[in-house]
Amino acid sequence: MNAKVIDGKALSAEVLAEVTASVSEIQAQGLATPCLAVVLVGEDPASQVYVRNKLRQCEATGIRSVEHRLAADTSEATLLELLAKMNADPAIHGILVQLPLPAQIDEQKVIAAIDPAKDVDGFHPENMGRLLAGDESVLVPCTPLGCLLMLKHTLGDSLKGKHVVVVGRSNIVGKPAALLTLQQHCTVTIVHSRTQDIEAVCRQADILIVAVGRAEMVGADWVKPGAVVLDVGINRVERDGKAKLVGDVDYAAVASIASAITPVPGGVGPMTIACLLRNTLQAYQQQR
Ligand SMILES: Nc1nc2c(c(=O)[nH]1)N[C@@H](CN(C=O)c1ccc(C(=O)N[C@@H](CCC(=O)O)C(=O)O)cc1)CN2
Ligand SMILES: [Mg+2]
């Protein structure tokens, strides 16, 4: 088998085009423009790239953006004060704090301080709880939402009843990906570092979603022939003396056995940013 490549760049362009059309319509009606506030603490190079891309996509879709760059030694209190101001500002509809945060700041405390209505990352405990309860109007985390859109695009109605195995149990990807596919009537298993015979469980999957952060961990012997494989990993490695970006899946090996697979780069990553803008529009519409 030679897997179909699920093109995250092409699909994210479709999502962004829909957002752009909706923003144009809002502007044509003379309404306030949707606005996203982005907070970056410190100088992590990857985070700087992601934030730059988020701001660039805001501009491309017509969404207004406000950027706050804070020094790496910013105190938790200062960040919480900024969030309180933005929560109270009716001209700001979405707020995101780029993760990871420096060690002196408690990530959970910061996430919980964002107004759930403006939480375009879908990380707030209230939004996580609503997702768990099956509330379909809730803001959901961007990466798992991107995965779901890719699965719907690839499988359509036949997504129902499929066995999804999610590798990784993070709050940001693994758990919400499991809940979102459960909501689509999939049979869902989460596996992780302590799972016994993890390869055998993964081999049962019709759909394998891998989000562990370990370069090329999933080989062909983890995958049932014909499975759909979504690779959420982004790992910077050195190969033949050159820097290279690889996923958590051994792409060449798994593409020869899967029916469809996401590449890295150009797979799930671009969908994350497109879904952020989609969520910003949703937050705006729900605040009107
Ligand atoms: N507040 C948040 N922080 C973080 C999130 C998040 O959703 N919200 N996710 C990740 C980082 N992230 C977005 O913030 C993100 C990561 C990767 C990509 C992406 O498009 N990747 C490209 C490769 C780019 C590269 O060269 O590194 C790809 O896969 O094609 C977009 C967004 C952690 N923090
Ligand atoms: Mg092996």
Automatic annotation (TrEMBL):
Keyword Hydrolase: yes
Sequence ranges assigned to domain Tetrahydrofolate dehydrogenase/cyclohydrolase NAD(P)-binding in this UniProt record: 141-287
Domain Tetrahydrofolate dehydrogenase/cyclohydrolase catalytic: 6-121
Pathway of action: One-carbon metabolism; tetrahydrofolate interconversion
InterPro entries referenced in this protein's UniProt entry, alphabetically: Aminoacid_DH-like_N_sf, NAD(P)-bd_dom_sf, THF_DH/CycHdrlase, THF_DH/CycHdrlase_cat_dom, THF_DH/CycHdrlase_CS, THF_DH/CycHdrlase_NAD-bd_dom
GO cellular component, one term: cytosol
Keyword Amino-acid biosynthesis (UniProt): yes
EC number annotated for this UniProt entry: 1.5.1.5, 3.5.4.9
Record-level GO BP terms: L-histidine biosynthetic process; methionine biosynthetic process; purine nucleotide biosynthetic process; tetrahydrofolate interconversion
Keywords annotated in UniProt: Amino-acid biosynthesis, Histidine biosynthesis, Hydrolase, Methionine biosynthesis, Multifunctional enzyme, NADP, One-carbon metabolism, Oxidoreductase, Purine biosynthesis
Gene3D superfamilies: Leucine Dehydrogenase, chain A, domain 1, NAD(P)-binding Rossmann-like Domain
Catalytic activity: (6R)-5,10-methenyltetrahydrofolate + H2O = (6R)-10-formyltetrahydrofolate + H(+); (6R)-5,10-methylene-5,6,7,8-tetrahydrofolate + NADP(+) = (6R)-5,10-methenyltetrahydrofolate + NADPH
Superkingdom classification of source: Bacteria
Gene Ontology molecular functions: methenyltetrahydrofolate cyclohydrolase activity; methylenetetrahydrofolate dehydrogenase (NADP+) activity
Sites where the protein binds NADP(+): 168-170, 234
HAMAP family cross-referenced by the UniProt entry: THF_DHG_CYH (MF_01576)
Family indicated by similarity: Belongs to the tetrahydrofolate dehydrogenase/cyclohydrolase family.
Function: Catalyzes the oxidation of 5,10-methylenetetrahydrofolate to 5,10-methenyltetrahydrofolate and then the hydrolysis of 5,10-methenyltetrahydrofolate to 10-formyltetrahydrofolate.
Subunit structure: Homodimer.
NCBIfam families (alphabetical): PRK10792.1, PRK14186.1, PRK14188.1
Protein known as: Bifunctional protein FolD
Biological source species: Ferrimonas marina
Gene designation: folD
